[in-house]
Amino acid sequence: MFISSQFDGGNIDVLTCERPYNIQVAIRKDNQSDFYQWFYFRLTGAEGEACKIHITNAGKAAYPDGFKSYQAVASYDRTHWFRVDTQFDGEQLVIEHTPATNSIYFAYFAPYSMERHADLIAWASADTRVEYERLGSTLDGRDMDLLIVGEPAAGKKACWIIGRQHPGETMAEWCIEGFLDRLLDEDDPAARELLERAVVYVVPNMNPDGSARGHLRTNAVGSNLNREWQTPSLEKSPEVLCVLEKMHQAGVDFCLDVHGDEALPFNFIAGAEGIPGWNDEKQRQLDFYKQTLMTLNPDFQIEQGYEVDKPGSANLTICTNFIAHTFGCLAMTLEMPFKDTADSPQSHEGWSPARSRHLGASNLQTLLSYLKAF
C-alpha cells in the first residue's frame, strides 16, 4: 500500500501505512499559518482490503465541529465523488472503506483542480461575448484570471461574482462554473436578458496559490484573503489588491462572494447588516435576493446561518462588508456546506459538485430578478 499527495491540491502527511486497518496520517498546515482542515490524497495497492484511515490531528483542525456528522468523499476516477463511512471522536477522524480497485482518492470535498480552472477559463474565453483579462500575479507567479461577460453600455450594472478566497472551499468554484455555464448558454432567455441589463465580472478563483498548494484558508504566505480587503498589499495579498483595483476602475453595483462553511449543514447567505449606513432599503434588497433564491432552489434556505452583526459593528476587512460599505451596493457571502444539507439530504453524494453547479445557475435567475426589481 502507498499514500501520495504530491499533486495539484494534495495535502496529507503519512505517519504509517503498513496495515490496512491502521493507516495513520495527518493534515499539513497551510504555509506560514496554523489553519488546516483540507485533505486530499491517493491510496494505492489496497484493492479488497478493509481500510481504516486515521487522520490523527483532526481534533485540532481549524474547525473541529466541521468533522461532526461529516462523511469524507472518495473517487476512483476523480470525476464521480461519493461519501464514505467516517467517524469523529473529537480527536481523530477515521475513514473506513474497502477499495474496489488498486487506486482510490479521498478528500475533504470534491476537489476543483487548477487544471479544471484553466479549462474553465479557456472555454469561457472562447465565447465572443467574453473578454478575458489577466489582473496580475499571485505570490507564486500564477495568473489572476478575470472573465468580463457582456458589452458595457450606459445604464448597465456592473455585477461581480467572485469565489474561493479560501482555497479549500472548492464548492465555490463548482458553483461559479454552474453560473457561467448558464450565463453563456445562448438559448437561455434569463441569461440573455441579464446580459442586456448588466456586465458580469467573474473571478472564479481568488486564491490560485492556496488551491494548488492544498491549503484550507490562506494564500502562499499564510494570508487569509477574506481579512485583507481594507488594506491589501503586494507583499501579503496581491490577489485582493489587483481585483480591488479593477473594481474601482469598472465599478460595483452588485457582488456575490462564494464560500463554503465547514460546520453548518445548510446553504445560506450572510449580508452586510453591520456596516455603517445600513438601512431599511438595503435590508429590503437583501431579503428580496434571499427569498427569491429560496423560491428558485429548494436546497437554499433562510432560517439558518451566521449571527447577524449588530449595527455599526461590521468587520470591514471582510470582502462583503468592505464592498457593501465602499461601493454602496448589495454585497453578500453565499455559503455552502462541506457536509450534506440537513433539510434536503442526498446520502450517496451529500452536498456535491452537481448540486453546487445547480445553485450557481439558480443565482443567475435570482440576480436577474433583483436587477428588474431594483
Automatic annotation (TrEMBL):
Name of this protein: Peptidase M14, carboxypeptidase A
Molecular function via GO: metallocarboxypeptidase activity; zinc ion binding
Keywords: Carboxypeptidase, Hydrolase, Protease
Entry similarity comment: Belongs to the peptidase M14 family.
Active-site positions on this chain: 335 (proton donor/acceptor)
Keyword match Flavoprotein: no
Top-rank taxon, per record: Bacteria
Alphabetical GO biological process terms: proteolysis
Cofactor(s) listed: Zn(2+)
Domain named Peptidase M14: residues: 104-371
Pfam families for this protein: Pepdidase_M14_N, Peptidase_M14
